[in-house]
Amino acid sequence: MASVDGRTKWVYFFGAGQTEGRADMKNLLGGKGANLAEMANLGIEVPPGFTITTEACNEFYRRGKRWPEGLEEQVKENLRKLEQAMGRRFGDPANPLLVSVRSGARVSMPGMMDTVLNLGLNDVTVQGLARQSNNERFAYDSYRRFIQMYGDVVLGVPRHLFEERLDAKKKARGVTEDPQLSAQDLRELVEEFKGIVRQQKGQAFPEDPWEQLRGAIDAVFNSWNNPRAIKYREIHHIPGDWGTAVNVQAMVFGNMGEDSGTGVAFTRNPSTGVKEFYGEILINAQGEDVVAGIRTPLPVAVLKEKMPHVYAQLEEINKRLEAAYRDMLDIEFTVQQGKLYMLQCRVGKRTAMAAVRIAVEMAQEGLIDRQTAVLRVAPEQIDQLLHPTIDPSARVEAVAKGLPASPGAAVGQLAFFADDAERMADEGKKVVLIRAETSPEDIGGMYKAQGILTSRGGMTSHAAVVARGMGKPCVVGCGALDIDEKRKIVRVNGRELREGDWITIDGSTGNVYVGQVPLVQPELSGYFATLLEWADEFRALGVRANADTPTDARTARQFGAQGIGLCRTEHMFFGEGRIIPMREMILSDTKEERERALAKLLPLQRGDFYEIFKEMLGHPVVIRLLDPPLHEFLPKEPGAVAEVAREMGVTPEVIESRSRALAEANPMLGLRGCRLGIVYPEIYEMQTRAIFEAACRVAKEGHEIEPEVMIPLVGTPGELAFLKERCQKVAEQVMAEQGVRLPYRIGTMIEVPRAALVADEIAREAQFFSFGTNDLTQMTLGFSRDDVGKYVPTYVEMGLLKADPFQTLDVEGVGQLVKMGVERGKQANPDLVVGICGEHGGDPASVWFFHEAGLDYVSCSPYRVPVARLAAAQANLSKPRAGGKARAVEAHAAD
Amino acid sequence: MASVDGRTKWVYFFGAGQTEGRADMKNLLGGKGANLAEMANLGIEVPPGFTITTEACNEFYRRGKRWPEGLEEQVKENLRKLEQAMGRRFGDPANPLLVSVRSGARVSMPGMMDTVLNLGLNDVTVQGLARQSNNERFAYDSYRRFIQMYGDVVLGVPRHLFEERLDAKKKARGVTEDPQLSAQDLRELVEEFKGIVRQQKGQAFPEDPWEQLRGAIDAVFNSWNNPRAIKYREIHHIPGDWGTAVNVQAMVFGNMGEDSGTGVAFTRNPSTGVKEFYGEILINAQGEDVVAGIRTPLPVAVLKEKMPHVYAQLEEINKRLEAAYRDMLDIEFTVQQGKLYMLQCRVGKRTAMAAVRIAVEMAQEGLIDRQTAVLRVAPEQIDQLLHPTIDPSARVEAVAKGLPASPGAAVGQLAFFADDAERMADEGKKVVLIRAETSPEDIGGMYKAQGILTSRGGMTSHAAVVARGMGKPCVVGCGALDIDEKRKIVRVNGRELREGDWITIDGSTGNVYVGQVPLVQPELSGYFATLLEWADEFRALGVRANADTPTDARTARQFGAQGIGLCRTEHMFFGEGRIIPMREMILSDTKEERERALAKLLPLQRGDFYEIFKEMLGHPVVIRLLDPPLHEFLPKEPGAVAEVAREMGVTPEVIESRSRALAEANPMLGLRGCRLGIVYPEIYEMQTRAIFEAACRVAKEGHEIEPEVMIPLVGTPGELAFLKERCQKVAEQVMAEQGVRLPYRIGTMIEVPRAALVADEIAREAQFFSFGTNDLTQMTLGFSRDDVGKYVPTYVEMGLLKADPFQTLDVEGVGQLVKMGVERGKQANPDLVVGICGEHGGDPASVWFFHEAGLDYVSCSPYRVPVARLAAAQANLSKPRAGGKARAVEAHAAD
């Protein structure tokens, strides 16, 4: 606590060349107070005043809601200073000083006390104001407003009582707008308002300006702990002991004629980022009038003609403020009879597009350095730049909410079956495919649809995974949908929609809207590319993509992925015409049948791998062997069953019975991942053969290549050792056949909790780890990602979870296992490369954690690669990693 | 290594008053050598001889299979000593010394070298033997046997060549048995055998006794690393550097007339444990003859009449041996012309029943102390005492193998449906119920069946859990069964069985047999009770039972449970007539419907709790609120659906559609446990009310009671805090209504891996923890307990898992989380009581781990309580816990 002459300093003066505060004193003076002081320090005209510190507020509470020792004295001293600066006196009948009183915490808190304006008016001073302004109506209108505000905010008189009386007055005078009331009307209203106060509070409205001020300051202090403020602090995790400052400032009036006005503006365009003075002004009005919406504001540019000297001043001030704050600012100002006063300045909010452009241009202008530019854009915003979004000006209400499975918004006509979606799309219609859940049979329709909506499933259900891969908007697990497939009707919260009805989905929020909601199309600017290039310079964490097809791989490269961290071999079989041999393989009863089916799959996989390797030349490609529960691929509809039966030369009953035998109670914890490779070794052998045959072909074409084979769902070192040996055997065989020698790597997923616990033992068998945080989250929390729709939203709502753990890593729980896995793994095998390839690889908060946990790279879906690049850079700039860049980045820097 | 006069001592003499070894020198002399030395030390007559140490064997390998420096010298010295002791000389034509050569490792290893007898015979000495024994036939028979054994064991001549020649000789002579061959025949055979050796080895059979001995010793050394021995060591985890000793011992002959003989016996009855000399003897025979099965042995008791002085000597020796070894012994002896020689003694194998009785009686006799008695019985054996077992003498082969889900064997006629099982049982038949998997609807039939057999499901499937609760034999997950319910046929490995066919299952091994296999019924002796009482004195770990009904609770008390560690409230509704309101509750669509159904459940639960509390007066009862996925209770058959629909006044279609809505992809990771309590608070409120209303009634009857409420599946401290608060509210309400004040406790299961990771935070909200190691194993390993049948058996077979992790805790993986949970929990809350209530609570190896991990108690199914009591005592005796008994035991010691 500052002290002067042994006294604690509770009050800081600003303006009139006597400013005591600075911008960096926000903790003590609050944001508003510190910024006012800073503007004054910069030589910018602000109405003078003083700030009572947040410490005074805290002391007020410590003393049982009594003013701290010395505060009254200091307020009075500063009031005298203010009187001298303004040449007016508080309560002076002829030349009264009027002030505003505002709260101002360290951060803006909309839940707190409103402003009190025109404080200092009473039955005597109002006449002085009338004489001085030569405008009786203005004086009584100000007085009327003061009583209303003070009554509401300080005395707690219900607001509606004043408003009803005002309405009654207008009715009595046969008018509809406030300005139509005369000075006499307003004078009467003043008396009536005072009557309301007397009746409600049992005592007269305070006429003594000091008493008024004292009450207003008390009210600001008290407002810190009103229920709204407490609730707001809870939600935003703001500590209760920050306290609020109180700003007492001389009044200036924008409503004193055509040479007066009030404005709100930005130093640059907050929507586009263009470097232009952007905002609105109301001539002959006070700030209040903007809010009331009585008159339409004009663009600030009109000042260029109407008050050219003011406009020039504002431009100059903007430049000075940006130089001081090194950011785009949101400013408020008032012009009183041709004189410009700045009332407020703060860092301005902006769209993603503006954020990127402003950051890049400011760095180019030399206002900030590149590091700062990279830190200026929130990675969460990046998604807006890559996908269509709901027009923020659209006034629409969601009819239901599901899980935001793949970002972006889509508008289309409802199709209930994949076939219908294809047909309708071929007719030139825009389609949204709605299903209970999707299956591989739906791929064609999904591809043709604008977006996908399901009533079941979680963030990693088939629909979600495929949609993200396609970069297509998708909302899943929207339980409110009651889909009647047979009749092609969906009921949702009392509405009934049919095939062809329009619907809009927002895959970034999970919202579902009925009808066509206007969208804003994304635009990828050069600024965006520049910012991400800068980000790449500063990050320690490598960024790869999860890509399962050559198309995905191309997209991944375009978004700047440094390799493929996860190529899911099973997704290759979701494609058309490929599901049949896959099903044959799964439904085989004997090794021979299975090998026959695998022989059909081999050339398909080899071809895909070859294409992917070619797309990614010079970059690592990690290919994961078959992972999911086999039943995911089983035919569900009679037609599909018959087709597989025909192909395999058995009856449909046989296929159905084998399908039943494959059914599992909890397939996520069943026969999948490396367990498949152990129970049916021929599957992994075929896949390994496909990988190495493809790699050998690439090598023979003269390229360097080092395939990486990843074994999923390992829980014990023995599993990995066993499968590694078999994999090496096939690799050696193929290389001998092809007459080619290749370097290659074999590693594993860490996704079973046990694997993290025994990571040291597993690391002795592995060349790399990749954390499968989707499965690790499922098992560590015991949450089935396909079923969480039934309880996770409730949990997040109740605060039992901070976020959906499938979106943002559960650092306290799952994070412990990740840390354990990295530490134990790297200790046992210092050459181990460690990455993560779950959905969390594209989540900024999670990326931050992975940076701190010492991972080498993250891998995420292609469309999230830019987000990850930016988040990784910010993490490293904020908390630089010891030892510099990770091996994964270094290793491929030369590629 | 011992050394004498600077030379390493490789050879230890025994017998003839010159013994150099002792019983505690097993590591150096092997088991056999040390025991021979010990007997000699005890003044018991053994044929003298010497032992070449295991160190010599190791040195032999270190020197590339050459004898260690000084060994030859020492063997020769000891041979001279032996000659002196016996008054015969090696190779002496008139009075030849004959010896046996045997291997003898630290532990008995059946895979190693066989014995060589009669070594020292050759064409010259055989005549001396003939003269001395005055029995030419005996001499040549001995010679023939020697060449055969030596040829096989030392020279590696295929055994069948000798046997074929022997058979040819008998054929030529027109006889069928060996003893019918004359001395001349045998003399010819000797020559023919030598011919075989010459032909096979290209050199003559060694005539020089020293060369014979040297070859035999080499052969023993070499046998340590023959493939059979290596395999045996691998399986039994015996280190390869233990080496084997070699025992060279003077021959004695039990086949020198009616005053000779050879016997194998036990100091006490190894089947029953009765203190009686028990074994068999062959008069005028060598040990070999017993094995050959040519003659039927007589009970040793015949010696009382035939050779009373020998019998008296044996009784005296038994007493001396038991006093020395403080255990029941297995002995071998030979009587040569009236003189008794002991050939071997070792601790005898015994049945569970005998083990218990011997341990208790020896302690009562003062031979051992009670601690030792408790350590003498393997807890794994206890099961044999509690359940019928397959008669070990039955020669049967299993037709299939499933998981051993509930111990004991059962014989019955096949029933394919629960209704059939009930009907058949009512007709007086013994029934085994066979199902793909069981559901609550099958309870009636399960209850009436002798045993239960399923083709699906794991160790904790419905069938397994219910069967264990009933103490009924059960085999689950027997994948080889192909059940055709419609036709009531089951196919299994090529056989076809129908309703009414006899089948036998062994729930202790998982074996399934076709037909009626003879069983041995268990018998619980007073010795058993005594041993367990003693065990209770020595253990630190409390033992409680998992009991869900008043009947279970009674059983638990009878088996000595110190309380109920887990009362599963859902199992109460598996009972007849109770499933309907449960289904109503689950299928309710609105809170009102649900509350109506809950109101029907309340009195049922309250009644059960009251009965359980009364059974367990003075002991803790931990009641777990509803845990399992709701779909477990859903009606599956049309009849059941219709019944629920009728009860609820809706159509069957409505019930079916609600059932579908409740279906989950992975129910084990779905809406269950505390998630149910959070999403549908009224369920837990009803259960809490039932608990406290029951407890208040007990209290009003004048008993002290402290109910403990356990919240399942908690993963975050917030879940527990939220539910605890609601639970406390209901508890306070009920106590106010009833006018009773009770102490009570609220705690949680630790079964989600995350809960173990944040155990410190959870412990601040909990009064007790109970590890749910079933679920913890499922999630930590990612193994669905219902689906593991598809891969865990393969894993165990391949050595990828040491044991089924649902039977024996995975200490390396899951164990880490248990330790973490205990440590973090107790550190954060020193008053925390920590138990475990998974199936592992009754597994001896797991109990050992829980003891070491510092848990307060284990809780297991009632029939495993004795196992747990014994295992807990052994763990504490072997590794006493610092700080003595656990709180859980102390707390209820006074009960």
From TrEMBL, chains A, B:
SUPFAM superfamilies: Glutathione synthetase ATP-binding domain-like (SSF56059), Phosphoenolpyruvate/pyruvate domain (SSF51621), Phosphohistidine domain (SSF52009). Residues 429-510 form the PEP-utilising enzyme mobile domain. GO terms for molecular function: pyruvate, phosphate dikinase activity. Its EC number is 2.7.9.1. Its cofactor is Mg(2+). It catalyses: pyruvate + phosphate + ATP = phosphoenolpyruvate + AMP + diphosphate + H(+). It comes from the Bacteria. Keywords: ATP-binding, Kinase, Magnesium, Metal-binding, Nucleotide-binding, Pyruvate, Transferase. It is an enzyme of class 2 (transferase). Belongs to the PEP-utilizing enzyme family. This is Pyruvate, phosphate dikinase. It comes from Geochorda subterranea.
